Amino acid sequence: MAANEVRSETRGGIRRRAGRYAVPVAVAGVAAATIGLVPALAASGDPDLPEITARQLIEKIAASDTRALSGTFRVSTDLGLPALGGLVPGLAGPGGGGDSTADPSAKLTELATGTHTLRVAADGPERQRLTLLDGSDEYSLIHNGDDVWAHDGKSNEVFHEKGAAGGPERHEEPPVTPKELADRILEAADGTTSVTVDGTARVAGRDAYQLVIRPEQRGSTVGSVRIAVDAANGTPLKFTLVSAEGGKPVVDAGFTKVDFSRPAASVFAFEAPKGAKVTEGAAGRADGHPGLPGKNAPEDFGKGFAEGFGKGLPGLGAGAAGKGPEVIGEGWTTILKLDTGAPAPKAGEAPKELQGLLDSFGDKVTGKFGSGTLFRTKLVNALLTDDGRVYAGAVTKDALVDAANAGR
């Protein structure tokens, strides 16, 4: 099939963060429990399907009424990071689970590197189950109504949180129709993104169209995002994220089996095994749901990275006087700046854990701004200047150095 490209025309009005509505809630809920992606794996064979435009395919995704599914999928992630293994306290994020090996905020960070096999089931926004099948000891995460349970089979520890799956109400009015949603997504791409339909694929035995999203701005580390969409029901099935550097995908995650029938209620039932240590977590954590990248996707992603990065490094916190990150630029080349108000530690002054992080993947850089340390991955880079400023985003080294040199 020839590629059909759609670029939005400039329209007035406020840009809406409409991308999150593009993925059916049941699928997005499961994805959020892992690494914020809707995964699938393309098999061999390219089915002959009717031609469809990018706008029509986005409308098809939006119109999907998929609320239930089950299946098995594989996630491969290659950020170009060393094995952190708890190198820096706090990188796992706030979990509230103390030392529990079942705490999801710590356990699911394992998905950030390597290849993993998972079994998943979903029945609407209130019930999801994910089981990590690596090795002989399973790890399960279950959301059933107001309860979230996690069980680590190896240690026989259980983590429980009441009401954690909820979150603050979003007051932004969602799009009324699939066409309106498509319009908003394409408007959000305004001048920064190309959206195309690029052929077809077989995904876990199902016919699918391939939606390709590419940044049009120079300086982004994102090469492309490819999503396979079920031709019959519009459910996103395949997600592959490629770095602008090329090579092995940063994320290649995929269903090997998928079934859209409703799972039995017993799948989401959980009772702590006899003798298990049960840890109660703090309720009320707010977790957003991801969707297709829109105009604000790079900003949201960069902000999450900068805030997580700051939590993991002593002295970075929320920045000077408790101020949050400052946004520089827009679209895929958005950079988050955080002024910590404290100089970076000198060699020999840093805690052992922090020094290990610096030595693992930090490179010294210089410029008009002075000097600092650049932390590289295949997707997100961060520059920590010696005077305590942090610049982070899914952008190249040159883009970070330019921002620091400009004193922005």
Structure description:
The protein has helices at residues 25-33, 54-63, 104-107, 178-188, 297-312, 352-361, 397-405; strands spanning 4-6, 42-43, 68-77, 114-123, 127-132, 139-144, 147-152, 157-162, 193-203, 206-215, 222-230, 236-243, 251-259, 277-280, 326-328, 335-339, 362-367, 370-375, 381-385, 389-393. With 408 residues, it is an alpha+beta fold. The chain has 2 domains: 4-280, outer membrane lipoprotein receptor (LolB), chain A, CATH 2.50.20.10; 297-405, TATA-Binding Protein (2-Layer Sandwich), CATH 3.30.310. It starts with a strand and ends with a helix. Residues 1-44, 84-97, 165-172 and 284-322 have low confidence and may be disordered.
CATH topology of the largest domain: outer membrane lipoprotein receptor (LolB), chain A
Number of helical regions? 7
The overall pLDDT average reads 73
Report the CATH superfamily of the largest domain.
Lipoprotein localisation LolA/LolB/LppX
Classify the helix fraction into a percent range. 10-25%
Proportion of strand residues = 25-35%
Largest sheet composition: 14 strands, mixed
Q: Give the oligomeric state of the chains in this entry, treating copies of one chain as homo and distinct chains as hetero.
A: single chain
Q: How are helices and strands ordered from N to C? A: EHEHEHEEEEEHEEEEEEHEEHEEEEH
- The structure class reads alpha+beta
CATH class group of the largest domain: Mainly Beta
Strand count: 20
Give the CA-based shape: globular
Our measurement of the CA-to-CA distance between the termini, rounded to an integer number of angstroms, reads: 45 Å
